[in-house]
Write a structure and sequence with these properties.
By secondary structure, the chain is an alpha/beta fold. Helices cover 35% and strands 22% of the residues. The chain has twelve helices and 15 strands. The structure holds nicotinamide-adenine-dinucleotide. The site of nicotinamide-adenine-dinucleotide has 25 residues, from α1.
């Protein structure tokens, strides 16, 4: 069995978890070298007995440690484009975490680069695409079980500790993370685009910061079992000490609406401080209704004119991080892609379009208007065809 030689750029919590999921799925690998000034993933790998390889001071030093079978990027979002440009120049397959890049300009630049140059294979960690429950939702919609998809609503509501982590971690700042929705739910909008089968035509969004603010700093900081609140998880690279007194400039709650070119209408609600966690998609079609509960990993379906009991499918594999086996499923998909040429479930183009969708929502929120997406898609299509 092949032993993969892996290089890592940005060895944080995420890449550490992906490496462990790969090991769970039977990958044999050696992390040969990494480029990261202070790897946040170190304790996670150390606890699992995985070596981190040689620390490198520069991209050139990392490249010289090759050859690699896979380069993995898990740096903060503002560094993705420059790390991708470097990694794609090395010549081996590249895996990068989502969001693929952080801004509209970066999206167009990367689309143009991918169109113009013959680049190595690029895989993006939009891990929900690999989840069995998500694949089942896509299968049922594609098979026409719901008839024509008319409207849907979706949520992603986070536990207060998760929200507190976002308010202290680098994701709290637009210039590092992009936005709350971009970092947290570009996954979901990628799937919504896939289900809609078309691109957003018009978008609107309202959101703001009214939880993790200095005005709220006096709230109770202790759970009812006496444990301290809002301090779980090391805030990591460029972390802030206090969730309520940081320099956060992204939203902590946001709503969004999309009208797709194909007709589907969608509303979305995200909040980073809830007592009842939820990540749920409610799909209403002419012939049936489907609810995907991504926290409980459960799908419910009933035909529109059925008086029978709803059909329920349990996907199990519940885990505390709510990834519910997604990382392992993605590790299997990546292995199959590299070893048999099987298609990876998401493409760089899907990832760019998902990111641009969220960026359009954020623009609508920032500018207080409904955004017509046509100019954005014209610019993207020009870049992606090499004319940009
Ligand atoms: N697919 C998912 O479900 C998922 C989940 C979590 C995070 N992510 C993504 O993974 C990426 C990393 O997130 P994370 O939670 O691991 O963050 P993290 O803070 O744990 O890790 C980021 C790492 O990047 C390193 N870094 C900072 N500057 C660097 C530089 N100039 N060069 C190289 N490394 C540098 C930091 O030292 C840190 O070790 C982000 O893009 C995030 O959006 C994806």
């Amino acid at each position: 069995m092949k032993t993969y030689r892996i290089g890592v750029i940005g060895l944080g919590q995420r890449i550490a978890h992906v490496l462990l999921a790969m090991r769970d799925e039977g990958w044999r690998y050696e992390v040969v070298a990494h480029l990261d000034p202070a790897p946040v993933g170190q304790p996670i790998l150390a606890a699992a007995g995985v070596e981190m390889g040689i620390p490198c001071e520069s991209k050139a030093e990392l490249a010289a440690r090759g050859p690699f079978d896979l380069l993995m990027i898990g740096s903060p979002n503002h560094l993705h484009l420059q790390h991708l440009e470097f990694a794609l120049s090395v010549g081996c397959p590249v895996f990068t975490e989502k969001p693929i890049v952080r801004t509209e300009a970066e999206s167009l630049a990367l689309a143009a680069k991918l169109a113009r140059a013959q680049t190595p294979p690029l895989f993006v960690g939009l891990v929900m695409r690999s989840m069995p429950i998500v694949q089942e939702v896509i299968r049922r919609v594609d098979a026409g079980q719901l008839g024509r998809l008319v409207s849907m609503d979706a949520t992603e509501h986070l536990h207060p500790e998760h929200g507190g982590y976002l308010a202290r971690n680098w994701r709290r700042r637009k210039d590092w993370g992009g936005s709350y929705l971009l970092d947290k739910v570009c996954h979901d909008f990628d799937i919504f685009n896939r289900l809609a089968g078309s691109r957003p035509a018009r978008v609107a969004s309202f959101g703001g910061r009214s939880i993790f603010t200095p005005d709220e700093a006096g709230r109770a900081r202790t759970w009812d079992d006496g444990q301290p609140a809002y301090v779980m998880h090391d805030p990591g690279w460029a972390g802030a000490n206090d969730a309520f007194h940081s320099d956060m400039d992204v939203t902590d709650h946001q709503t969004a609406m999309i009208e797709y070119g194909g007709g589907l209408r969608l509303s979305f609600h995200a909040n980073s401080h809830v007592a009842l966690q939820e990540r749920r998609w409610y799909l209403a079609g002419t012939e049936g209704t489907l609810v995907a509960d991504l926290v409980r990993n459960r799908l419910t379906f009933r035909r529109a004119l059925s008086r029978g009991r709803p059909e329920k499918m349990e996907f199990g594999h519940l885990t505390d991080d709510n990834h519910n086996g997604a990382d392992q499923a993605m590790a299997r998909d990546l292995k199959a892609t590299l070893e048999t040429g099987a298609a990876f479930p998401v493409t760089p183009a899907d990832s760019l379009i998902a990111g641009l969708t969220v960026m359009a929502l954020d623009r609508a929120m920032d500018e207080g208007r409904v955004v017509d997406c046509a100019p954005l898609w014209a610019a993207y299509d020009a870049a992606a065809s090499g004319d940009g």
